[in-house]
Design goal:
This protein is mainly α. The chain has a domain of about 110 residues. The protein is built from six helices and no strands. α1 packs antiparallel against α3, α1 runs antiparallel to α5 and α4 runs antiparallel to α5. It is elongated. It starts with 7 loop residues before the first helix and ends in a 54-residue tail after the last helix.
């Protein structure tokens, strides 16, 4: 496989990261503009700027992934984790993109493509192990063990009832 031919999941990661970056840019701008409308929002302004900064990093990373001239680049699990953390500011789309990116980074074709880009060792796919051959041999029948007999306790005769005492009346 040529290093110019990108796997489908690799391209999916790049496109999703680009779209997430654009969404985070708009999300950050809107959150910052809304925060500027109140006094408490001005104090929270540094928090509302964070999606904008993440969006910029996502767009730069996606541009490197989508470039026609491949350059050495590592999978960015940090960006994927930060995308998942955007859940706390209400951005569910970026959260889903972060989860998918982490899943796709673990695919063997994506790992191999990153390895080829970086000039490292390519991970060979694991072949299915053939079943172990069974050598014919004498048929051994299982030994049938006698079932243990449960000792039966001898029946104990019921003890006879105490004889009734007859009361003697005084004077008899």
């Amino acid at each position: 496989m040529d290093t110019n031919q990108k796997p489908g999941l690799f391209t999916t990661i790049a496109v999703l990261t680009l779209v997430s970056g654009i969404v985070n840019l708009f999300w950050g701008f809107i959150a910052s503009a809304t925060a500027l409308g109140t006094i408490v929002g001005v104090v929270c302004l540094p928090i509302t700027i964070l999606p904008t900064i993440l969006g910029i990093f996502e767009i730069i990373y996606a541009a490197k992934l989508l470039s026609s001239q491949p350059e050495p680049i590592q999978p960015s699990q940090t960006i994927a984790i930060l995308e998942i953390l955007t859940f706390f500011i209400g951005n569910l789309f970026s959260m889903v993109v972060g989860i998918l990116a982490l899943i796709f980074y673990n695919d063997i074709t994506v790992k191999n493509y990153f390895a080829r880009l970086n000039g490292t060792v390519v991970i060979p796919p694991m072949p299915a192990a053939p079943p172990a051959p069974v050598a014919p041999g004498p048929v051994v029948e299982p030994e049938i063990l006698p079932t243990p007999e449960v000792p039966v306790a001898p029946e104990t005769p019921e003890s006879p009832a105490k004889p009734k005492r007859i009361r003697k009346v005084a004077g008899e």
